[in-house]
């Protein structure tokens, strides 16, 4: 439980600022008259996250033995997150000069992406194989909770108290993670790569493990493209149905995050009890059903209750499926290159998410929203089927501790 508390604190505080930049700030700028084209350009800051794979080996190779290898990185990065948020104070969006604001946001995203490498590495090394399901459920619950706090609570504070109050709250909430970092005592590393070249070779050697390429480039790709293409249709369909931007932001950024938090915790517990394959099938079936439930919205009708239920079911199912994906990614993450391995495998999914949005919207222009949703259901079904077969053949053997050799590597 203590391990899960550490992970919940770190992932939540990391995503508070991310939620604000990706949801809260977008709503603030749009309400102030910022064009959609400018907002679209601002979202490109998120491309830093898939690129973090380029410097992940540095975090695996270098670190202080005295302060804790990854903890020494977190001491710098968590402090940097707080200071970067405080640097937003002079740049109230109502002033109209967005240049400095965007630069500070870009710096924050860079720091948060780098911090994610260190936290993921700590999670891989902390969690025994039997605890990975619950640990990844806590991770995704923390991501959703951070998004609610940054994209929801801080937006409400901005509406009532202004820019300074919102930014100070962001910084204060993020600073809570420093308490966790200070109190955390990391076990000394004895498996650090002997050189930087060795650390960087892990970028490709992770895929040499049995079944890893099939999992990453078939199962994960199909599931992320299918779900990403369907989700990309939601916002334009809601706009077409006459929903206001504020209503869309609250529902898609805050309301549906609540069931996602619950789903992360529940799915994590079930992964530990019934296994990865069964949770993948259950989550995939619910995700396909939720996508079908969006068809009234995608056909031009958006009744409030039905739409919110379908969106909530979609995000809950998507979170549950992600718990399985992250858990299997962790199975393939070797302790000596934990940050690099988990980052590489996760970055493939991130890249698929970016690409799938473009695919979904482009296909919708040609064939319409409902056709894309039906195609997404087919892709999801194929991904789940291949995932079930993968787990039947490459499921990890039980190990007593997370720092034992990766089970997938010896399968």
Automatic annotation (TrEMBL):
Localization, UniProt: Membrane
InterPro entries: AmpG_permease/AT-1, MFS, MFS_trans_sf
Keyword Transferase: no
Membrane topology, from the record: Multi-pass membrane protein
Pfam families: MFS_1 (PF07690)
Superkingdom of source: Bacteria
TM region positions: 7-29, 35-58, 70-89, 101-128, 140-158, 164-182, 215-234, 246-267, 279-298, 304-328, 340-361, 367-388
Keywords assigned by UniProt, alphabetized: Membrane, Transmembrane, Transmembrane helix, Transport
Claim: Secreted is one of the keywords in the record: no
Protein name: MFS transporter
Source organism of the structure: Planomonospora alba
């Amino acid at each position: 439980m203590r391990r899960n508390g550490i992970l919940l604190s770190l992932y939540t505080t990391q995503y508070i600022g991310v939620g604000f930049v990706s949801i809260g700030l977008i709503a603030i700028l749009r309400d102030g008259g910022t064009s959609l084209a400018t907002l679209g350009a601002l979202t490109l800051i998120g491309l830093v996250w898939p690129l973090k794979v380029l410097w992940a080996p540095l975090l695996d190779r270098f670190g202080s033995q005295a302060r804790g290898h990854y903890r020494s990185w977190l001491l710098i990065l968590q402090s940097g997150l707080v200071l970067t948020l405080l640097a937003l104070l002079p740049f109230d969006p109502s002033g109209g000069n967005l240049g400095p604001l965007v630069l500070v946001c870009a710096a924050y995203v860079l720091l948060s992406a780098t911090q994610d490498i260190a936290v993921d590495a700590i999670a891989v090394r902390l969690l025994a194989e039997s605890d990975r399901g619950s640990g990844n459920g806590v991770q995704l619950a923390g991501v959703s909770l951070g998004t609610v706090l940054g994209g929801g609570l801080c937006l409400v504070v901005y509406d009532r108290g202004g820019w300074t109050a919102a930014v100070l709250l962001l910084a204060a909430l993020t600073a809570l993670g420093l308490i966790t970092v200070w109190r955390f005592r990391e076990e000394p590393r004895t498996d650090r790569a002997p050189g930087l070249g060795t650390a960087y070779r892990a970028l490709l050697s992770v895929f040499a493990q049995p079944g890893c390429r099939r999992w990453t480039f078939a199962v994960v790709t199909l599931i992320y493209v299918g779900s990403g293409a369907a989700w990309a249709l939601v916002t334009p369909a809601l706009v077409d149905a006459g929903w206001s931007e504020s209503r869309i932001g609250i529902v898609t950024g805050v309301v549906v995050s609540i069931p996602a938090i619950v789903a992360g915790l529940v799915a994590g517990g079930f992964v530990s009890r019934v296994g990865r394959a069964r949770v993948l099938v259950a989550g995939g079936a619910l995700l396909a059903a939720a996508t079908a439930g969006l068809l009234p919205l995608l056909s031009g009708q958006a009744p409030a209750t039905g739409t919110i239920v379908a969106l909530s079911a979609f995000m809950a199912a998507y979170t549950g499926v992600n718990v399985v994906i992250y858990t299997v990614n962790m199975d393939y993450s070797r302790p000596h290159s934990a940050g690099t391995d988990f980052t590489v495998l996760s970055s493939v999914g991130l890249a698929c998410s970016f690409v799938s949005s473009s695919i979904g919207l482009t296909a919708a222009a040609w064939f319409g929203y409902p056709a894309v949703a039906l195609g997404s259901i087919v892709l999801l079904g194929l991904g789940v089927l291949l995932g079930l077969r993968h787990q039947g053949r490459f499921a990890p053997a039980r190990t007593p501790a997370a720092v034992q050799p990766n089970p997938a590597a010896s399968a």
